[in-house]
Amino acid sequence: MGALRQVIVGAAVAVGTAVAGVSMVRSMERPGRVTARAAPSEAEIGNQDIAFFRARVVRDPLSARDFAQLGRLNLQRARETGDNADLVQAETNARHSLALRDARNSEAFGVLASSLLSQHRFAEALEVSRRLLADDTTSVAARGLLGENLFELGRYEEAGTVLGTLAMYRNDPGIAPRLARWAELTGKPEEARRLMREAADEAERRHGMPKEQLAWFHLRLGDLAFRYGHLGEAKRELEAGLAIEPRDARLLAARARLYAVRGEWQAAADVGEQAIATTLDPATLGLLHDASRVLGDSTKAAEYYRAMALAVLRQPGPFHRAWSLFLLDHDREVPTVLAKVREELKSRQDIYGYDMLAWALHRSGRDGEARAPMQRALALGTRDAMLFHHAGMIERSLGHDDAARRYLEAALSTNPYWDPFHPAEARAVLDSLAHR
Residue 140 in contact with residue 178, Cβ under 8 Å? Predict the structure, then answer.
């Protein structure tokens, strides 16, 4: 999330600096002649806005509004660059704003909740979201944040209730992604795709929507297409996003993954390198490890593994699921991962936490214990090929051939390209079951 998982909470705050509203800057090269310089990019404007508000809070350290504005700008830049330092700074500035004034300061509460959510500190974000909604019970954005926190924590009944009150806002670009994720979790992928398409179209019609957010909608649409085996559609969406933001690390990483599942490992490595040049994402480093191994460069694979381990230490949140899944799939540090999964489930009981527990138990050779959490992972009816594959492999290890066959066939019918390696494993197991 993880994917999800970028939080859309509205357009970036425009500030009244001279540069923010300028479409071009004129300079005098010599008397009588005026030349035009290209308008600054969104990233340059954002950096200038941050510098502007930093100067303001130095001059007036008691301005709760300026600290909230600065936090929002940090949050927006974090989404654009993937820089976790900006997420932490957004949290710091929001807390400072609230320390100065917590009454009628919904902006700071919103920034704080969003920054905590992006850091995967869901329990803390939940409390802040509740406070935000208590301050303004009519706030659609606050209900959206609350619903997202609830389903991330696995509190699905409450999440469904909250998100049900937002159905009338299904075309709102800030609400539709949450409704789409909920539809996906509850086994309605086509509804999820329709919601995201409508929201993306609405976002494009809105004046002033940041390019990063427009590109994110194409990323999410590409991910949805990829999850259900529509590789051509996924490719088109990722290309559309990259046309908007050519250096977006998330889009580049998704494109590298698309190459990997097609077996185009050199292309996957090349695009993956472009992605980590901007952001050291552990999942992308894991893909580069696998690409190097397939291409026969074991030294480079080992370097990527070490880099992945270091990158995880820099990530927000106490537990990195992509790293843990990589370790389990490569039979590394299985007891450590199992212990961490159990610890995380004490506070975050979502379906992917139970899936991780089941998979860690399977990798530990404890399939009898793995079956119960695997059933909990499937309880919402989520159509996810990875979940079906894990369930099938557990059932096969228990000698339940019919159940194994059903789950593995479901995995391949849901998405025959969910992973570079596991679909071939599923087909091999089905072949062995057919000959048994």
Answer: no
30 three-class SS:
strand
The pTM of this model reads 0.86
Residues 416, 409: Cα–Cα separation, whole Å: 10
First-to-final CA distance of the chain:
39
Burial class (CB in 10 A: 0-12, 13-18, 19+), 281: buried
Could you say which residues of the chain have pLDDT below 50? 1-32
How many angstroms separate the CA atoms of 150 and 126, rounded? 7
- Predicted local confidence at residue 319, as pLDDT: 63
- Kind of pairing between the strands at 33-37 and 25-30: antiparallel
pLDDT of residue 14: 31
Confidence at residue 396, expressed as pLDDT on a 0 to 100 scale:
97
Supply the pLDDT for residue 23.
Answer: 33
Q: Which amino acid is at 154?
A: G
> Looking at residue 313, what is its pLDDT?
77
Main-chain phi, psi angles of 39, to 5 degrees: -65, 145
d(CA 52, CA 153): 37
Question: What string of DSSP letters covers 127-188?
Answer: HHHHHHHHH-TT-HHHHHHHHHHHHHTT-HHHHHHHHHTTGGGTT-TTTHHHHHHHHHHTT-
From 46, 93, 106, 51, select the one nearest 73 (Cα to Cα).
46
Residue 33 per-residue DSSP state: E
11 DSSP assignment: S
